[in-house]
Design goal:
The chain has helices at about 5-20, 25-35, 35-50, 75-80, 90, 105-120, 125-130; strands spanning about 55, 60-65. By secondary structure, the chain is mainly alpha-helical. The chain has a two-stranded antiparallel sheet. A hairpin with a 5-residue loop joins strand 1 and strand 2 (about 60-65). The protein is elongated and about 60 Å long. It comes from Hominilimicola fabiformis.
């Protein structure tokens, strides 16, 4: 599995907001993380819609976490941006795989995918802040 650049940026944005623990403007988020401004806005929209962060409009507007860092996992953020974690096409949509249910490789890959998703759901941004 390879996460997208967009998901990687989203992880960095959440880590920054967790670390700063204050409201930050989109422009400052983009500059500090070296992310193109328009791309930053696109990512911020997605994570606001998911309820992970809140946005405030106006002169004093900006973005802040909507949950405690201990309540946000790597899996939450990655799946918000990239969709369900899947290590290959068959895992993404098993019904579309003609070998679904009979493929021995698929069964093993499913186990790997489950371990990966489970581990990502255990790692919170509090862990990230504490360097765990």
């Amino acid at each position: 599995m390879k996460i997208t650049r967009e998901a990687d940026y989203a992880l960095r944005i959440i880590a920054m907001l967790a670390d700063e623990n204050r409201q930050i403007e989109a422009k400052a988020i983009a500059e500090k993380n070296d992310i193109p401004y328009r791309f930053t806005l696109k990512i911020l929209r997605k994570i606001v819609q998911a309820g992970i962060i809140k946005s405030y409009r106006g002169v004093n507007g900006g973005y802040v976490l909507n949950k405690k860092p201990s309540e946000i996992t790597l899996k939450d953020v990655i799946e918000t941006i990239d969709g369900k974690i899947a290590i290959n096409k068959c895992m993404e949509n098993p019904e579309s795989c003609k070998n679904n249910g009979i493929c021995k490789v698929q069964r093993k890959l499913y186990k790997v995918q489950k371990v990966l998703a489970d581990e990502m759901s255990k790692i919170t941004f509090q862990d990230v802040l504490e360097g765990k």
